[in-house]
Design a protein that fits this description.
- The protein is an alpha/beta fold and 584 residues long.
- Helix content is 47%, strand content 10%.
- Strands 1, 2, 3, 4, 5, 6, 7 and 8 form an 8-stranded mixed beta sheet that branches.
- Strand 2, helix 21 (394-404) and strand 3 form a beta-alpha-beta unit.
- The radius of gyration is 26 Å and the shape is globular.
Length: 584
Amino acid sequence: MFGEAPGVARQDKGRERKALEHAPPALQRRDLIAGDRDDFADIDLELDGAGKLGRQCDRARQRPGGEIAAPGFLDELVRLGERLAEIERRDDGFEQRRGERFAQRVGGRGGACRIGWLAVGHAPIHREPTETRQSDRGEKALARFPSDATIERLTRAPVAGLRLWAARKAADRALHWAALRGAADDPYVLARLGLPTLALACEAKDAKARFGALLARAMRGQGDAPANAHALDDGRRRLLAKAIAPHAPGAAAKLLPEGDVLAIEACRLAADDLTEAKKHHRLRNSVECEAQRIHRAIRGGDYSTAREAFFMLCAHHHLAEFVEPGDGSDFYGRFAIDDLESAVSEPVDGPLVTVIAPFHKNADTIATALRSLTRQSWRNLEILAVNDRSADGAAEIVRAMAEADPRIRLLANSRDPGVYGARNSGVAAASGEYVTFLDADDWSPAERIERQVARLGDGALCIANHIRMDESGAPVAPRVFPMVRPAPITMLLRRETLLAAGRFEEVATGADSEMLARLEMLHGKAAIRRDPAVLLVARWRPGSLSDAVEGGMLGSEREAYRADWMFRHAGLTPPRLPAARVAA
């Protein structure tokens, strides 16, 4: 239906050229098809076939009881995928041109091809308004090509080349379980999944694998960018710069495309260059820009500007204003997490939400964390402060706060020592319809729970953005950019969803990322709701769990544990790397 499988001899090459000559003018542009005229002629015919079958599927769905399984369609898609994989192996630049071609075809054909591809995954058709389809010119359809479900299926294809192609697509989309099933020994797949040590242990057999090995070396801090790195396309330059940035932010800033102003600025700040670029002021409406302004102001001792930038960062998503602390401290002469306090918002009623806050030697920070919870606009709360064998007076602080606010309960960790054992103890004692978490040295604005419950809707869980601040109040990012990024610790979900997924793995660090990945695998990425507001400010200080050399963001122990759970999610035997130690 869509053309012959790759490798089968074609007797009439003139047929392909003729098909291209009779294609619509927009599809004959030489800058899109470059030297692959025959290859694109084949693919054009195959995409036409996909569109026809898609229209048939759509008509069938519109009839009562018309849900169909598109018999034989996946087999034909496999043939097309084999052809794409074969061409991509011959030409590294083919993939981008194929994507541009597909976007033009889908945009120009009213979405018929999109319907055909979505039919493969047996996904329900959700039609967008006509004006949206026309204005997007197929961009949304291209973002879904192929669907995540189709990618997962193709990673199990019988043809090795197609499995590799699909596995790399899965790695780009962070579908780790599918990527490893398809190509657990490919350097590109392993590097994109954040496993550089394993990537360097595998043989690079083609150009993309060699780029994966280059990424892995950069992630390990082994050498600078190659001399010809600027010849890479913008997407690969961004990937390489992100890998280099934690070790050589100055080199990363030079490698980034000129238009990536905020990423370049973040690299310059990490390299202690506090001068503001000329283009930076144009981006003042973004939370990332405001986070960088805070960092620059703190480093320059300008606390008033830092406070103003933080207010703007929060106001960007309509969070409440902040009030001066009532302890008489110098509000404008410093800037720190302990000074943050949201104005009291209008109370919101709803189902009971349990917030689990483990603590261990947090006598100096626990009050700030719990106070940010008691001031939440969502009033129906159960705040479980779980004592993880702390002996520094933190328990007495919690007990005093519980007397003033009966929503706070003091519990003891009855499981293995460590933050994740304490969280499991809290989950076992929780009675709320929803569950979320807060570390004992972090802070959340008053609208956090209200916003996340509203955004969760019928999704599996909701996560939000966060920033990390050091003891001086300056935002920091272990990976340099972006400074504002989602945080697994912010997950809010129904208690029954969490219980069905299982306990947190009781290791030293990184189990919140494993839990989020587990939930994504169980429910699909589309079920994850994301709030763009900064709903968590995390404390970054020397000696903290996230800053520890072995257990920290970039530590080898975290990588070893990451490899372990990723391979287990994929149903594969975990690689022989040092085991993640249990917190003591």
